[in-house]
Amino acid sequence: MIGRLNHVAIAVPDLEAARALYRDTLGARVSPIVDQPEHGVRTVFVDLPNTKIELLGVLGENSPIAGFLERNPAGGIHHLCYEVEDILAARDRLRAQGARVLGDGEPKIGAHGKPVLFLHPKDFCGTLVELEQA
Prior knowledge:
2,3-Dihydroxybiphenyl 1,2-Dioxygenase, domain 1; 3 helices; 35% strand; 22% helix; single chain
């Protein structure tokens, strides 16, 4: 069901510093910072030959990243994103197998302009999983 790894998301306390680290120290190609108000995050994408790294920063008081950074002040891996061909079919199959879809269960438009869903980390070895329709 899952396809390629789309990205690894890392929550960071200072998005500009993390962007500079990947760009200047590691020599990576990085995107500008983009605010994602519907998700309460600011994003930077680091392009790699085989996938992407998504750097996540706080946007607003209700940002889900704020709580993560309170528990992990230095930052850390926040989630893994896998591609699926049909997000609704994937959701229905996962629910039928007992997996919990976060939120209201309806896909939202993610940072790449495609439908996404998040799966409860307790159902996936302690890892928050994002599914993105390819």
